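pls ignore typos typing on phone
magnesium ion + seq
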Amino acid sequence: MNTKELPLIAVKDVTRSYILGKTVVRALRGVSIDIERGDFLSIMGPSGSGKSTLMHLIGCLDTPTSGSLYIEGEDVSEMDEEDLADVRNRKIGFVFQQFNLLTRMTILDNIMTPLMYARIPFKERKERAAEALERVGLSDRLRHRPSELSGGERQRVAIARALVTRPQVILADEPTGNLDTVIGRTILDLFHEINEEGKTVIMVTHDPEVGSISTRSIHLRDGLLE
Ligand SMILES: Nc1ncnc2c1ncn2[C@@H]1O[C@H](COP(=O)(O)OP(=O)(O)O)[C@@H](O)[C@H]1O
Ligand SMILES: [Mg+2]
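k done
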């Protein structure tokens, strides 16, 4: 099978319900979308519309209640936790609103961490982390700790950490949500460059500015595509 002809990610009639005591929250109620290589997709919609739920499914952090999800033709919707973790490590880089850096580690160690899970030897981990830091313009900060950096710099570190495993897909959930507008813009510019370098970028955002750099946007409302 030639996987190049398949969409990078195919979401087929996916639902996700959460059970909370006696109530069922239907966070996604049947969503289908194909995402192609090189897309910069923005996922928009009001709070509670299911954006993060969809992002978690695409990122193999969770599996659907029904429907199926294929990454390069591989059905990930029925995978167990171990196989999901393997797909995540090989194919996906994550960037979160809260940066999610490990506060007691240096910047360099933070960026090296995903390579440890990928069982890359120490020397190569260090080289690749330094390279990723250079890519985001923070080579002079590798011995610092996250608390010594500004919000925008922390998000750059998180982006370097997402890039270091050389994933095809970068998923970002409200990456500018904790930043002021000017700094947020520089982070969006960085995602734009990363996309132009060939990565597929999928971003959950409220920021209307993203419309000008994304190649496609979808809008969720009450768990359905508008
Ligand atoms: N782990 C969970 N347990 C129960 N309900 C959840 C959970 N995660 C999300 N939800 C609910 O699912 C709906 C969609 O949430 P979410 O995907 O986080 O939306 P968004 O990211 O668009 O704000 C909301 O009603 C939310 O309260
Ligand atoms: Mg959310």
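The chain has a mean pLDDT of 94. The chain has one domain: 39-62+81-225. more later
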